[in-house]
Amino acid sequence: MKWFKRLLIAFFSLSLLGVAAITAAYFYVLPDLPDVNSLKTVQLQTPLRIYSKDGKLISQFGEKRRIPVEYDDVPVQLINAVLDTEDARFFEHRGIDPIGIIRAATILITTGKKSQGASTITQQVARGFFLSNEKTYIRKVKEIFLALKIEKALSKKEILALYLNRSFLGNRAYGVGAAAQVYYGKELNQLSLPEMAMIAGLPQAPSAANPIRNPERAIARRNWVLSRMLEKRNITQAQYEEAINSPSTAKYHGAEIDLYAPYISEMARDYMIQKYGEEAAYTNGYNVYTTISSDLQLMAQESLRDNVFAYDQRHGYRGPVTELWTETPLARDEIIATLKRTSTMQGIIPAAVMSVSEQQAQVLNSEGQLITLEWKGLKWARKFISDKRQGLPPKQASDILTAGQQVWIRDNGQYWQLSQIPLVSSATVSLEPHDGAIRTLVGGFSFSQSQFNRVTQAKRQLGSNIKPFIYAAALEKDYTLATLINNAPINKPDTRQGTAWRPKNSPDIYGGPTRLRVGLAQSINVMSVRAMRHAGLDNTIKELVKFGFDPNDLPRNESLALGSPSVTPLQVATAFNVFANGGYLVEPYFIDHVTDGYDNMIEQTIPAIACHKPQETTQVINNVDDPFAAMAEELSQPAFEQRETIEANDNVEDQTTQLTAEENTCSNPNARFAKQIISEQTAFLITEALKSVIWGGGDWSKGTGWNGTAWRAAKLIKRHDIAGKTGTTNESRDTWFSGFNPTLTSTFWVGFDDHGRQLGRSSWMANGEPDQISGAEAGAKTAGPGWNDFMNKALAGTPEHPVIPPQGIVSARIDLATGKLTRKTDHTTTFEYFVEGTEPKEYVTETQQSGDIFIDNVAEDLFQ
Hints:
By secondary structure, this protein is an alpha+beta fold. The protein is 33% helix and 15% strand. Strands 6, 7, 8, 9, 12 and 13 form a six-stranded antiparallel β-sheet that branches. α4 crosses α5 and α13 (294-314) packs antiparallel against α23 (779-794). The protein is elongated, with a radius of gyration of 36 Å. The relative contact order is 0.09. Mean pLDDT is 84; it is low at 15-34, 617-656, 765-772 and 849-864.
C-alpha cells in the first residue's frame, strides 16, 4: 500500500512538474511567438502572369511557380494521399498528435535519433510560415505552441489549404497546383491516382524523391504512399495493384505559354514593377490582361517575319556560318553535338551540309534528321556583295554550298530552304481606332536577338508618312481635294536650315498643276511643300502636335513637309488612328485589367473613346504667349502611359471616378471622351485621299487611269475600305507603311538599327526571277508587303464598310484637269467630296487648259 501511495505521489509530482515545465516553456518562448492571425491574410508568393485580351498566357515572371487552389478544388483522393502520408489523424487532433509525440519520444530514447514523425500538418504550417527547419528543442517547443494557436485561429480546411499551397515540391514548384503543372502539365482534377500519390510523396523529400531526377526512388516513395492509402482503406486492392504497376509519366513542363509575344510582356512586366515594386510584382500573383488579340498578334508576327525574310533574300546570301570540316567529315554524333550548341531563332535552325549535287543539297539538322534542300529552296541565294549589289543568279547548288559547311535552314511553310539570320530590323503595331487599345505589337524580328522595343523606343525619320498630316493642315485652312497645287520645281528655296534647301520629286518628274488628291496619292514632294506653305509652317507644327507628335521632334523648316522628324512607330499609328476614327486623338493603352491571385479585380483601364459627348460641354482654352512651349511641356512625358481609370488624361474632356468599362459608351454623358483634334469632315476627306494611295483613280480604259504608290495593297486585299500611306526617307534609310480601315489601324517600319545604313536596292526578287519590284528599297516595296499581308489576314471574313460621308460633306462633279465644276459626264470628269460650302463655284469652259488654272498663289519669296 505504501508503495502504491509513493507511486501516486510521484506521478502527481511529475505531472505538476510537467505542467510547470510546459508553463515555463510557454512564457519563455511567448515573446518570440508571432501572431498566427496573419495566416488569415497571408499572401502566398505567386508569379506574375501576363495574358492576352482573350486569356492566352503570354509570359510568367517570378522565381517560384505557384498556382493557388482552394480546398474544395483539390481532388478528394489527393487529400487522402497527403493525410495518409503526413498526418492520418489531422481532422481528429487539435494541432499536436500525442500518439505521434510518444512514438517520436520512444524512437529518441531507444535509438538516440530525432524523428519528424510527430510533426502534424499544423506544425508543418507553423514551421513553414514562422520558423526555420533546424532541429532544436526550443524550435520544437515553439512549433507546438504555434500549432495550438493556429488551430484556434483557423479551420482545418484553411490549415490544410495553406499546407497544400505552400509546400515545396521540387523544380521550383510550390504547392500541389504548380506540381501538377510542372510534372504532368495538368490541372489538379486531371491527375490520375498514381500521379496524385507521386505528388503526395514529395513534401518530405522534394529532391530525393523527385520523379524527374530520381525516378526509381520517386516510384518507391509513390508506392509507399499508395500502401498507406490501402491501409487506411481509401483505395481498393485492385486500385492499389493497378497504380503501383503504372510507369512514371512525369517530365518537366514549363509554364504553358499559349502566345509568344515577348515585347508586349516586357512592357507589362515593366509597368507592374514601376507601379507595385519588383518584389510585389513578382510574388503577389498578379494577372495582367493586356489588350493584345492573340489571333491578330500571331498574324502580325508572321507577316513581319516573312517580310523581313523577303527583304533579306532580295539582297543575297552572305555565306555559311562556319566550316565544320574541309576534307575528312566529322562523325555524325560530333556534328549533332556541335549543332545543338547553336540556338534556333524564329524558325531558323542550324544544319550541316552533308553532300551537294547538281541542284540540291543534303543537310543534317541538330535532331539528326537528314533534309533535302531542293533547287527552289536554293536558287534565291545570289552572292551578297553590298546592300546595293548582288551577284549573278546561281546555276547549280555548288555555286552556293560546299559539304562541311554549317548553315541555316528554315521551313517556309511549303518546303525547306537555305536561310540566314536577317540583319535588317522591323517593327509593327496595330490599334483599335475607337479607343486606342493596342491589338498587336512586335518590337523586332527576334526578341532573343535584341530586346530593344522599336515600337516604343526607336525614333526614326518619318518620310512621306507625314504627308497626310501636312495636307490635313491645308484642308483645315481652306484647301479641298480638288485644289490644284503646282507640281513644278521649287525655285525659291528654304534657307532656314543654313543651306539652300530645294526639295525634288522622286523620281525627278513634274506634271504641272495637280489636284491635291493626286498629290497625296502619288506622294509628290513639291506639292507637299507647297501645301505646307499655304497652311503656314507654325500652323502646320501646331497641327502636328495635335496629332500627338512631340514639338521637340519637329524642325522649324520646310524639311518637315517631307518627313524629317524622327518619331516612334507607336506615335505614327496613334496619329493615323485620328483619320480612322473621325478626328479624335485616342491615347494608346496596352493593359485592359489586372487581377490578384484570386481573380479579384484591382485595376481596370477606362480608355477615352472617340465619339461626341451626348450633351453640350464648355471647353476652357488657356491663352499662352508661346503655344509651342506649352505643347512641349504637355507632351514631355513618354509617347504614352498606361493610366488607371481615375488618373488624369490631357486628351479627355470629362473625367469620372465612378465609371465601369461597361458604362464607358458613347451614349453615356459621364463616359471618358477623347479630344477631337480635327473635324470629322477633314478626317473623312484625308481618308478618301488615302484610299487613292491604294486604289488610284481615273478610268484606265479611257487613258485617264493613275496608280497610287500602294497599288500592290489593292491587288492583294481587294476591298475598298482600306486607306494608307507609304513612307521613304532620304537614301532609303527608313521605310514605312501606315494604314487603316474603320476597325484597325496598323503601322509597319523596316530599316537598320544603324541609322546610317541604307536599305539599298535589289535587282531580282527572292525566288531568283526578275520582277517589277526590283530597284531601290522604298515604303511600298519594303514595308508595304508586310502591312498588306497582315491586313489581308486580319480583315479576312469581316464585312467591308461602305462609304458613309459625315454630315456637312457634299459631292460635286468636277473636271479632272482643272478641279472646276463641269456638266460633262465623260472620262475627263469625276465626282469629288467637299466640305459643304467649299465646293467649286465656277464651271470649266471648253477653252480652258490645265496649264491656265494654276491657283497656288502663295508668295514663294516669303521663304527665301
